[in-house]
Sequence to fold (1068 residues):
Amino acid sequence: MAKRVELVKEGKPEKQGTAAFLTSEEMHKLAKLVLMSRYVVEGNLAGAHRSPLRGASSEFSDHKAYGIGDDPKHIDWRVLARTDKYYVKRFQDETNLRVYLSIDRSESMDYGSGDITKYDYACHLAAALGYIVVKARDSVGLFVHADKIDARMDARNSFNHLNNMLKRLQSFKPGSTTEIAESLHQIATSIRRRGQVVILSDLLGDEEAIIHALAHFRKHHHDVIVLHILDPMELDLSFKKPCQFEDLETKDRLTADPRALKDAYNKVFGEFLDQYRKACAGMNIDYRIVRTDQPPEDFIRAYLKERQRLSK
Amino acid sequence: MFDLLNPLYFIIAGSIGVIVPLVLHLIQTSRTVKLPFSTIRFLKLAQKQSASRIRMQNILLWLLRTLMLVMLALAFAMPLLRNKSLGRWFGRSPRDVAIVIDGSFSMDYNLGRSTVWEKAVETATAVLEGLSEQDRVCIFVARDHVEPVIEQLIGDWEEATGRLKALEFSQTSSELAPAVMEANAALMEVKERREREIHIITDTQALPWEGFGGENADGPAAEPEKEKKKEKEEDASTDDDEDDSERKTVTTMGAWDPDKVDKRTVCFVSMLGASEPENMAPVDVEIEPAVTMALSPSKATVRLGYTGPPRGSTVSLFVDDREVSTRSVAVGADQAGELSFMVPPLTAGRHAARVQIPDDNLQIDNTFHFVFKVEDRFPALCVGTPDDTFFLRTALSAGIDGKASIEMEWVPPGNVTDEKLQGYSCAFLCNAVPLSAGELGALERFVDGGGLMVIFPGDRGSAMDYQAWTCLPVVPARIESVSISRRKRLLHWEAPRHPLFETLKSVGDSTVMVTVRKTLHLEELDKRAELLVSQGDDKPFLVGRPHGNGYVLLFAVAADRTWSDFPLSPFFLPIAHQVVQFGAGVGSYSRYVWCTESLPLAQVLPEATHDTLLLGPDGETVPIRSAVAETRTVLHIEDLWKAGIYSMDLEGDGNPVPALAVNMTRKESDLTPLDPARVPDLLQVKHVNVALDQDELMTQIQDSRVGRTFGEQLLWLVLILAAAEFFVANFQARPKASLTDEMVVDSSGRVKGGAK
Fold:
């Protein structure tokens, strides 16, 4: 991955599309993973995910009094024998999953204390998730935003689409002020059917507004996953010497000794993270903190396995 | 209380020490690197929350670092705390002690059980006993000169104690200032950083402190006297430049200069004498007439010096060890008194005499010795023609008090030789000028040897003939004739107390009118000349001048009637007789001299030679030493330190006659005490302790002893401060738990805990 990161940082990726982010070996490993939705979703194809509609799956849903037009083959004979009344069995419909990846490309996402910026990391995560989704014959869509939605790609379930999506993603560079909340509201409004929304952002904005935007997704019954991407330095502030910090977005400057500020910073930043964590927990949003010093594939694997375990 | 042995370190290093942390802080601030960061919102919030804590920590660090550097500078500056309790805690540094003891005879004052001298030695011994192994000592005795007992600092203070106990006071006065300066010089010779102490052990007498400057040390009343003294000194200086330069050198060497005393030197002054001393002493004797005639009575006037409250006493006069008279006297507080004794007629020759008072607390100055010299004839020589000397010879032929006569001889001009002048005490020149060079030389040598030369002008010589003289009180400008209208002139006694007039009872009361037709015009008197009698409108009539051991008198008119009717005036005869008597006393003998180291023999005993046997008061032989000065051999009597009558055997018949009376200097008898509170003002040094007895001195030494320099303790303190600084600085930069650890984020990004 290090080699790829260097190439990405230089702005000259050796390869385009999926190949730029995933090796065949990684693809092989990721192919075994599945991203399941925790809620019913509305797909356009039959699939492995529950649909709010009654359908022809083998999953029993409930009984319904027989009416004209109902298929007699669904009459539950046992109930008829016991009650002498006609009831028909209804079954859960199963559909495919539409996963929308929302990637923040604000200026703050360009920060990286190590080899990789947060934006690059988000792109890698998006590539891995997209591959898993397409591999499971589900659809994947894309939103790239900063102060507004910069790119939108509808959900489709082809590798070709994934490849195009990642190429599109590669074409963007972080570099704008943050209006995450507004952008998220726009995204929430634009997705009509219930699906899964994966938000990849550092969430450095107005917390209340962002939480409100997340609630907007939930209002539309989307299954929301928030991957809060943070650099290790942002989390731990482990600078060794006093320095003059320059805000990447506002260009404001501040001279401080990080060692002296660490306690207070931990407290302030911890409260900031807690706000999201608690708000997401309250809205049944899957909230994860992702450190950029952790390989994306490792995180994906650990995350999906845990998600799979919890869904059983 | 607080001193720095090396203040330069503190001034320089301390200043740098205060600035360094600030400079380092500024350098550190200017070198801050710029670092892009995703957002500084949380940093601002964190800084806002911890600003006061950070500021406090920074101030604490700055204080610690500054304090550390200042303490380091202070440690190198070697601070000293003059404090008893601290000295007890830290111990004391080695010390160099200089002891100066007043060795004047006033130290023999009896305090009851012991004398001041004994107490002084006892106190000095106690100081020595208080020394420790590393301490060193030197000892000086202040007499009229400085006597170094132990000139350089030695560590063997047992030897010092031995030498101290062997000391004795001298029969002289003392000056403390030169001795203290030498003591200080001995201390300053050693460059090591040690405690320095000067112990001055004296009585309460103010006299030895005169050498110390101080502001108005002698009080405002002493100023005019000082000025007069200074003027006199200036006058005298022109006569003998060599003597003057010598005197100045001595004064400069012994002068008190507080700037030369190390500021850290502590002076302990022990004033062990009586707080209100009482002492009477005969300080001077005057005999009238100056030259006593055989078988004629004389008068001895004794001056008494007294210190103490008013009281009565008795004074006795002894001549040839026989009590002549005893008189009672009442003296006021701290006043001098005078007492006269009638001395019965004595035979011709020298007589030992003494004035004695009863025993008091200071017995050593109770006796005052002097020598009576009784003459049986007054030889006088008249030089001039018979006409010129007629009136004078007639006047001198008359008897003096009817009991003694003047042996007068006459020689014409041109016959004056050294041989001719030998045996005369007085020579009159009546119209004898001009003189040959040989005669002039003989006469000048005569005056130089103690004779009296009286010059009456005349028509033989002109004013120019006086130009070659070197001993005249004034060189006449011209001989002027007086107009008829101004011839009547009244004589005024310009110096009625001059010895020349001492037996003339009518001087000052009577008026003498003379008719002057011709006179010497006398202008611009020599600086040493004295105007004795003036005529008319303040023109000199009789002027005199000491020259060598003798004296020269110059009249403005002739000795006959050609110039004036002065020989016919009632003043002529007594003044002629008085001149002869005065001549017999001029340069003839000293009634007494003060104790001294060396005295020219010719000055006090002109008749003595190198072979003369001179015996001291106890019969011991007094050495007479010869020294060559300017091609002449000068005889000196040495070591005249013992008061009493010295006798000599001129005839070699084994019957010595009284020759010289030696007395100890009487200014030392003035025991006027000095207020101890004035001592610091006189010394003008930083640390002065005045004790009135030994116990107080010991307490002061204990209190004033300097504690060991606590530079070492300060270095330990610096070490502690450095450790504190290290702790505080690292406390700020200590590794702190990261937020990831606090929140417990697992690999799947799940947050298991919360922020603390």
Remarks:
- The longest strand of chain A covers residues 87-95.
